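Re: your question from the hallway

Yes, I did run it. Sequences:
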Amino acid sequence: MSVLDGIKVIELANERSAFAGKLLADMGADVLLVEPPGGDASRNYPPFYKDEVDPDRSLYFWHYNTSKRGAVLDLENDADRAQLQSLLDDADVLIESEPTTRLAVLGLDYPQTSERNPRLIHVAITPYGRNEPLSDLPSTDLTLMAAGGPVWNCGYDDHALPPVRGWGNQAYHTGCHFAVMSVFTALLARLESGRGQFVDVSITAALNVTTEAGSYNWLVNQTTVQRQTGRHAAIVPTGETQMRCADGRWVNTGVPPRFPQEFAKLLAWLNTLQLDFPEKVFIEMGANWEGNFNLSLIGSDDTVTAIFMAGRQGLATIAESVSAQAFFEGCQRAGLAVGVINSPEEAFEDPHFVAHGMQVPVEHDDLPEPVVYPGPPFSLPKAPWRISGPAPRLKRT
Amino acid sequence: MTSALGKYRICDFTGQLAGAGATKWLAAFGAEVIRIEDPTRQGRWDILRGNPPFKDERTGIDLGGAFNNHNTDKLGITLNLKTEKGKDILRQLIRVSDAVTENFAAGVLERWGFGYDDMRRIREDIIYVSNCGFGFTGPYSAFKTWGPIVQAMSGLTHTSALPCQQPAGWGYSYMDHTGGYYMAMAILAALYHRERTGEGQWVDLACTDAALTLNGPALLDWTVNGRGLAGADQVHSNRSQFQPMAPHGIYPCAGEDHWIAIACRNDDDWRRLAALIDQPWTAAFVNLDARLAGQDALDEHLGRWTAAQDKFALQSQLRALPIAAAAVQKPQERIDQDVTTADFGLWPEVQHTAIGAVRVDGQPVHFSQTDWQTTRGGPCLSEHTQDVLTRLLGMTSKDVAGLYEEGVL
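Structure:
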């Protein structure tokens, strides 16, 4: 069994909240996706299965709606609304991202539904919170990321270039992560109290507390971080960390060598590759250093500074002569936390992720071959994650 | 108000953000989270302890602003696990805890004699959640990561970019935050499973796996259609990747480094925006196909129009239409001047024993019955050792004083 087996979730379709429903459904919850007549708008988002434009062929919709069942209900219609009410009478969780007053007008807001089903956990995932009028204005993942703080932190050293939004619906994902944490927390609380509750998740608030130093530097001493290429936005500029390798792919070099044993391994690697450059002598000094470096002397002590500059240069010299993957593995064996900048599909095909079971084939009964989906973010060994089936097909009337 | 998680106790080895962020949520909802730190290294296995930012320019091991931010409402004790007595105290603590949490490199806890099998012998139904960059299995399990490396390996850095530029990546550890969220889910899910079945378990969470799942539609485009994102200049992450929208971007405004995000979701949005702009060039972009085909030119025109305007004034004008628009907010603007975060109570002020009063990140949710509360700052080194050992393990103050002298605490 999966961890949420037996938990009934009603989800009112919305692209902002779909990922929360997917996470719960893949953990075993019985999630019923309620769509309006004609289906949720995201059924029309590309990419499409073999480019066939069809509400049942959107790969976007497929991804966000695995393991769910589907129903079409017109909430403006009395009979359909009554049907949703009776579904909620028997549900454990409601997930929705409706306008601020819509459910109250329909007689389906928390005060009314909880009267009939006190065990219901009602989770609203909205742009600025359930009662904030801004939640009713148009917004997209991009505008929420700009308002909520992430965009300010991301971009390039050259500030003539616009700041950058991290790609891939991460505003919606962040709101949904907090929604799922909330569902589990409320389920545990319900075991004690026997009662459900209303949970108000604000997506922009979620983003505001997901910007690391951007927020806490201001909170602690009112300083403002500035964006930098490929590395943390910072108060004081830091050294570049991205390098392009011999095969044209990029790596993130993380923190350059700081300990004598790291310099020793770097030196050994340079020697194996038969790479020489004038400053290599400082790497030798670093490798033979007695005890640990006093890191606070970087920048003031000439020898220590030269050793650390040479460490960075040693990495750059190796990067120019090997592939990104070889650079990554070699640095990691030297004890340096370095990473290849993979595209999503390069990561997906990487043997490590394949070994972790991150390629999950799912049967679609109307397709000749299974479709391969991304696997679990985590899985409980005693109650495993599982895609129980593909996204529901649109019920057409 | 009662607390949601008040009956649970966590024996917490987490550090940095990826681990500490997870148990911060549990503590805010009332769980008793006991941070265990190494006295011989002054708790420095969490590099944030004693690191900037500092309030009032006071520096020291108890004064790190980031550490405080991630460890609110937790208790802190020291235990020297190189000593037999230290190990014995840890065994006693595990016996009275529901879960053990850590985000060390794979195998560290096991080398100290506290692998999952060891802990299960102490308490059969113990929950153990580890959050490790590459997990405990697979070709890279011995390799090290931190946020930017997780983001690089999993595809999140590559997809954050402007055309003809190297990847911009994320200007902070998005995956330390998000790895922490998944770790919190894993701890809560395992607690829920134990409540229903009585079983404990070990969840081996690999942060890079969690990160890989955050580009789902792009991965399906790869597995189904064979279309990938490798190679130069395929990513323009300020544009809309799935729903076709244009304009959709971040445009300059008046003043130094001021920007605004604007998205037109459909032709109606565009008609309203074009009427406001009221310039002849808009006529070339009446329908979506034209706007998508000429998106570079459209962005240039629009950027010239926004460049002379104040970002907040323009935001008000666009929202009145209404068009999806938001100023790119700087920290000061979203923390001190944005009523939506203030009204949400997002920045609670905590009392920290050494730092004093300081604001921290709150939780972006509210529960109607058992809401979170964040009042206490992160623990000073060993601040609650005496409290925990006397209250939970029945030691006397004299026992504790002796253990400090022996170097166990």
